[in-house]
Predict the 3D structure of the following.
Amino acid sequence: MAERRDVHLASGIVAGIAGGLFASWIMNEFMQNVGPSLQKVVQGEDAGQQQDQSGDKPDDATMKTADAVVSTVTGGRHLSHEGREKGGPIVHYAFGALMGATYGAIAEGMPQARFGFGTAFGAALFAGADLVAVPALDLSGAPGDEPISALTTPFAAHLVYGAATETVRRLVRALL
């Protein structure tokens, strides 16, 4: 019986990783293609125009994390802006896969974790990562530093992530 449970857990983790990777891509597409329009509706026409003096977008949490990892591994060497732009997506996909694996494992033993077709998971991930962990690690400002409307697009993107993770998890799990 324990061996069968291990197989289910491993299958859940594999399915969750596949779901998390795909969902990370879908989340990126949502943020790039839907996010700006959603933000304009919520905040007004000037939303999404934040750039520094050089015209580059400011570093996001994934870019700062990539730089911190490289700095730790290399004993203090930091990435260029271009390096952070390349490293950010690697961090995003790695974190998405890790969260998908976690979700896949939990969903295997607790069907109630699938509530809302993965959107409850996406909402919990938004709260835990964007509202708590990222500010606590000084990778962004505190959630209260910006108007609540600025959280609309990231929250919606995490709901999309959760639903996409659950969709692919179910498909892969059915194949395993």
Notes: The chain has one domain: 2-42+61-175. Helices lie at 2-33, 35-43, 61-74, 81-109, 119-136, 152-175. The chain is about 70% helix and 0% strand.
